[in-house]
Design a protein that fits this description.
Elements: E1 3-8, H1 13-18, H2 21-29, E2 32-37, H3 40-47, H4 57-74, H5 90-102, H6 107-119, H7 128-137, H8 149-165, E3 173-176, E4 181-183, H9 188-199
Parallel strand pairs: 1-2
Antiparallel strand pairs: 1-3, 3-4
Helix pairs in contact: 2-9, 5-6, 5-8, 6-7
Amino acid sequence: MAQIDYYFATISPYTYLAGTRLEEIAARLGATIHYKPVDLVALFARTGGTVPKDRHPSRQEYRAQELLRQAKKLGMPFNLHPAHWPTNPAPSSYAFIAAQNAGGGDLGALAHGFTRACWAEEKDIAQDDVIRDCLSSAGFDPSLADSGLLQGAETYARNLEDAAEHGVFGAPFYITEDDQRFWGQDRLEDLEAHLIEMKG
């Protein structure tokens, strides 16, 4: 069974635009997904990236055009200037890790729920009530928002180290068990093609 390490950020617009296509690919091909939420700002600092607000205006302008183009192409609602971005990604990431450890729900739906709340629903995913709603909608116990914070922080920090060590520099980022790396939601077709090739 193929395995995919999936590095994502709960406040990443491109993670939002990935939707649940990775989960659909994994289901079709019998692959297992290892979810690894990461601190994207810290990852940029470690790997030579720059946060959007500090990028050259030409890069900011292109990013704005590209996000809107991709959202339209995918038929997904998208707010280029959400009311609650940037926000602290740690609480939602810790809740995701708690849900991952607890089981019983849909992790793909939870990851997408957090990003959708930010980029399409004008919600602050650092707020407890929003986190609880996302957990509940994905089939998890909403009280996980308040549990496992220390373990969540430790796993979140470890995911950052893993990301830097394995060549990850953005989100979403997908790594197969044979160390093929795919960066961006627009590379999911390439990831699927590689997984099919691996199956022979």
